[in-house]
Amino acid sequence: MASLADLETDISDHERRATVKDKAAIGASIIRAIRHYSGRRWWWNENQGTAFNTVSGTEYYALPSPLRVIDNVSVTVSQDPYILERRTNGYIEEVYTPAGVYSGKPSDWCLFEDQIRIFPIPDGVYAVKVQGYGLALPTYSTDAADAWTTDTTTPWANDAYDLIYSRARALYAMNWRNDREGFVAHSTEEEKSLQALMAENNKRSASRRLRGWSVG
Predict the structure, then answer these.
(1) C-alpha–C-alpha distance, residues 205 and 203, integer Å
(2) CA distance 89 to 30
(3) Which residues contact 110 (CB under 8 A, 6 or more apart)?
(4) What is the phi/psi pair of residue 184, to 5°?
(5) Considering the entire predicted model, what is its pTM?
(6) pLDDT tens, per residue, the chain with 216 residues
């Protein structure tokens, strides 16, 4: 499988730019390209379920990383799973006033300060599963060439290779080369790649349409 380092090398070769400074600029362009598209749902960043157990008397739980959007939160009781009702924090504050009084089998959840809040406050240990999408973003150090500091074998360098390649080259042309023609040309290729990837994504995801809630 291709890596982000391979993608960086391909761009460097096409740009005929191999200095440490140029490679760092290309690496930064790749990161910006990935961040631009990381907020979308793709078949490779769907999370089929991150599990944790509740603690009796505890209502707040850390948001599973690296989820960006939550589709649903479910709880299993006596081997029977059910989906919790998504609420606002204001709703829970109003319904469950005074705070800390109500406990029992969970029925609702909300997002609050990058945490999942479960109500009623769990009165025991319940298995919780959070489904959504998100993928840990790679990082790049500008201190040295080829300084990818995370696992770089990623779908962004494989399934989305053409998309990230085109956008990274467009960003590089605009921000570091002041190359208007190059920016336009690569942006055109980016749009073509995006349309092709979205068509494939829609085909793969047609059977599992979900509504999600952004976590930030």
Answers:
(1) 6
(2) 37
(3) 86, 87, 88, 89, 91, 92, 116, 117, 119
(4) -65, -45
(5) 0.78
(6) 788 888 998 999 988 876 777 888 999 999 999 999 998 889 888 876 789 999 999 999 998 877 888 999 999 998 899 999 999 999 998 887 665 678 899 999 999 988 999 999 999 999 999 999 888 788 776 655 456 666 556 899 999 999 999 999 999 999 999 999 999 999 999 999 999 999 999 988 765 555 555 555
